[in-house]
Amino acid sequence: MAPSAVVTVLSIILFVSSPVIPIPASFAEGILVLSTTASPDGGSKVPLETNDMKLNLAVNQLAILHLLRKGASGNKCEGMTGMGRGDLEEVQRLREELASLLDTQCPLRDSVAEVRDHQEAVSHNQQKLENYVKDINASNNNLNGTLSQVRITVSEMSSNLLKIQEDIKRLQEQIAMKEQDTEKNNSTAQLHDDMGATNLWSPGRLFRHEGQEFYLNTDQKKTWKDAREWCQERGGDLAQPNGGWDLFRQQLLQLLPPAPPSGHQGVWLGASDTQQEGHWVWLSGTPIPHNFPWGRGQPDSNGRTSNCLEIVHEKDVRREYNDYMCSDPRYFVCQL
């Protein structure tokens, strides 16, 4: 703060806080002599020691206000031509206070400049931070795009992997079927070799079903009783498949010669109800289960005369399990 401003403020305070001050006629003289002051011992007046004209002016003005205030408060004024020791000390004190205020002005300006520098640095850092945030957002967008592409690639790879697994499973099934066919062919060939060596089952057709070996005789037709004896003479018996009866029937029908244009063609198997009407059992004594795949409306017994089990084969009509008269000649299947 400039000295004149300080003096102005102090002057206002002094005038406001003081009563109305009568201005003496010798006021002009007092202004002129304020540039000097009495010596401490009351001798001749000496100039105030200062090189700052503005500070001298401020001190002079404060001295005038001080003297006027004394006069207004009832103290005698010895004239405006000089100051006493107390006045000199008061002026000196005011001068020192003003000098102290002036001394603090430069550090204050420096502090203000430092604050401004800090504000500029903060603004610069804030701009850099905003740029960093923009860069981070851009990087996040790129990362999200890359992540989406990775997810799409993983999804495609998963789909391809499922297809590969399905292909492998299909190939394994094909290999298993080929192995079964190879094993079946080898077993059939071995069975043919064995039968050829003994010449017991030839001519005829051999096949396997669920681990059992069967021989289809299509060379001659026999009654159910004669067919069983023929099988027994060769160490077997009429066929008694353990299960999978639909598949057994399909295998057998593929081996049979074509059905005649008209008439009935069938193949004897090893089951009957000759011991008890309606109670069908295999030759081993095992009852035929209730879920056995009989043909529609079978067994019908046909007046208690149909007591033996056959697979009937009529051209484009019936290919099913049926009960028939045991005395009628049929092809037959032996179980080895």
Automatic annotation (TrEMBL):
Keywords: Coiled coil, Lectin, Secreted, Signal. Residues 154-181 form a coiled coil. Residues 1-28 form the signal peptide. Pfam families: Lectin_C. Gene3D superfamilies: Mannose-Binding Protein A, subunit A. GO terms for molecular function: carbohydrate binding; growth factor activity. It is found in: Secreted. InterPro entries: C-type_lectin-like, C-type_lectin-like/link_sf, CLec_Tetranectin-domain, CTDL_fold. One of its GO terms (cellular component) is extracellular space. Its main location: secreted. PROSITE patterns: C_TYPE_LECTIN_2. SMART domains: CLECT. Transmembrane segments: none annotated. It comes from the Eukaryota. Residues 209-335 form the C-type lectin domain. This is C-type lectin domain-containing protein.
